[in-house]
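Hi team,

Below is the intake form for Extracellular solute-binding protein from Candidatus Gemmiger excrementavium. Please confirm the fields before the structure is written into the shared record.

FORM ID: S-0412
PROTEIN: Extracellular solute-binding protein
ORGANISM: Candidatus Gemmiger excrementavium
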Amino acid sequence: MKKMTAFCLALGMMASLLAGCSQGAASSSASTSAATESTATAEESTGAITSTELNIVYSGTPEVHEKEYLMNDYFKGFEEEYGVTVNVDFVPQADAITKVQTEQETGNIVSDILYVDTANMAPYINGGWMEDICLFSKDTFQG
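The structure came back. Fields below:
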């Protein structure tokens, strides 16, 4: 189960990067050096993703050892491999729903990935706010 959760998180992160969920944060991160500016300008002109941060809302309260694994092993490895910073907001389920609602209502979408109980997510799924990652993972778990 942990491997499946880890895979889904990684897949969600990659899908999020590919889908460009954080297009708003891209322009602010491209001013640190001439090389970065040049790269960012080239990426922006081609429509490539330029954000270096990935914001995850993780609902529920994982056990301490699970949280430590996610933060110290899993996300650190992802950050090193893909050159991004992973920000994780561990929140109770009710707060995750409120966070999504607020982002939708204000148009200020900052969460790239949601790891939540799907019971309350039907309005967001049906409203086109969620991406089905099955297309990205269909070949991964075939026997």
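SUMMARY LINE: The longest strand covers residues 53-59.

Thanks, M.
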